[in-house]
Amino acid sequence: MDFTETERIRDLKLRATRFLDEFVIPAEPVYAQQKTEIGPWETPPVMAELKKAARDRGLWNLFLPGERGAGLTNLEYAHVAEITGRSPWIMPEALNCSAPDTGNMEILAHFATPPVQKRWLQPLLDGEIRSVYSMTEPLVASSDANNIDTLITEDADGLRINGRKWWSSGAMSPACKVAVVMGRSNPDGEHHRTHSMVVVPLDTPGVNVLRSTSVFGYSDSGHGGHAEILYDDVRVPRENLLGELHGGFAIAQARLGPGRIHHAMRLVGMAERAFDLMCSRAHERTPFGRPLAEQGVFQDWVAEARIRIETTRLLVLKTAWLMDTVGNRGAAIEISGIKVAAPRMATWVIDHAIQAHGGGGVSQDFPLAELYAQARMLRIADGPDEVHKMSLARRELRRFA
Amino acid sequence: MDFTETERIRDLKLRATRFLDEFVIPAEPVYAQQKTEIGPWETPPVMAELKKAARDRGLWNLFLPGERGAGLTNLEYAHVAEITGRSPWIMPEALNCSAPDTGNMEILAHFATPPVQKRWLQPLLDGEIRSVYSMTEPLVASSDANNIDTLITEDADGLRINGRKWWSSGAMSPACKVAVVMGRSNPDGEHHRTHSMVVVPLDTPGVNVLRSTSVFGYSDSGHGGHAEILYDDVRVPRENLLGELHGGFAIAQARLGPGRIHHAMRLVGMAERAFDLMCSRAHERTPFGRPLAEQGVFQDWVAEARIRIETTRLLVLKTAWLMDTVGNRGAAIEISGIKVAAPRMATWVIDHAIQAHGGGGVSQDFPLAELYAQARMLRIADGPDEVHKMSLARRELRRFA
Amino acid sequence: MDFTETERIRDLKLRATRFLDEFVIPAEPVYAQQKTEIGPWETPPVMAELKKAARDRGLWNLFLPGERGAGLTNLEYAHVAEITGRSPWIMPEALNCSAPDTGNMEILAHFATPPVQKRWLQPLLDGEIRSVYSMTEPLVASSDANNIDTLITEDADGLRINGRKWWSSGAMSPACKVAVVMGRSNPDGEHHRTHSMVVVPLDTPGVNVLRSTSVFGYSDSGHGGHAEILYDDVRVPRENLLGELHGGFAIAQARLGPGRIHHAMRLVGMAERAFDLMCSRAHERTPFGRPLAEQGVFQDWVAEARIRIETTRLLVLKTAWLMDTVGNRGAAIEISGIKVAAPRMATWVIDHAIQAHGGGGVSQDFPLAELYAQARMLRIADGPDEVHKMSLARRELRRFA
Amino acid sequence: MDFTETERIRDLKLRATRFLDEFVIPAEPVYAQQKTEIGPWETPPVMAELKKAARDRGLWNLFLPGERGAGLTNLEYAHVAEITGRSPWIMPEALNCSAPDTGNMEILAHFATPPVQKRWLQPLLDGEIRSVYSMTEPLVASSDANNIDTLITEDADGLRINGRKWWSSGAMSPACKVAVVMGRSNPDGEHHRTHSMVVVPLDTPGVNVLRSTSVFGYSDSGHGGHAEILYDDVRVPRENLLGELHGGFAIAQARLGPGRIHHAMRLVGMAERAFDLMCSRAHERTPFGRPLAEQGVFQDWVAEARIRIETTRLLVLKTAWLMDTVGNRGAAIEISGIKVAAPRMATWVIDHAIQAHGGGGVSQDFPLAELYAQARMLRIADGPDEVHKMSLARRELRRFA
Question: Which residue range or ranges hold the Acyl-CoA oxidase/dehydrogenase middle domain (chains A, B, C, D) (predicted)?
Answer without folding.
Answer: 134-223
